[in-house]
Amino acid sequence: MSSPVPTPQGPAPFLMIHTAVVLLIAVVIGLVVGGLTFLSGGAVAAAVLAGLTAAGVSIPGLRSLIG
Q1: Whole-number pLDDT of residue 49
Q2: Calpha distance 42→62 (Å, rounded)
Q3: DSSP type of residue 41
């Protein structure tokens, strides 16, 4: 009787697919909000702050929605 051949285990992935998708969508949301803020006549600093805030706030919601 032969023993089963062990399957090689590669290194663990740097980011799981779920995390990558959530972060990618959060970046897109941040870019859209920042772009719209800038186009509405806001200053560049305000647009950057709005985009960063939108991206950060959307992460927990996206994490729970995308499963």
Answers
A1: 97
A2: 27
A3: T
Roughly how many angstroms between the first and final C-alpha of the chain, as a whole number?
43
b/e sequence 53-63, b meaning 16+ C-beta within 10 Å: ebbeebbeebe
Summarize pLDDT for 7-60 with one digit per residue, the tens.
Answer: 778 888 888 899 999 999 999 999 999 999 999 998 999 999 999 999 999 999
Angle at 21 between CA 59 and CA 50, to 5 degrees: 40
51: its two tokens: 């985009």
Q: Are 53 and 63 in contact (CB under 8 A)?
A: no
Residues listed for the chain: 67
Tokens of 23: 């972060």
Residue 49 CA: distances (Å) to CA of 30, 32, 39, 40, 63:
9, 12, 14, 14, 22
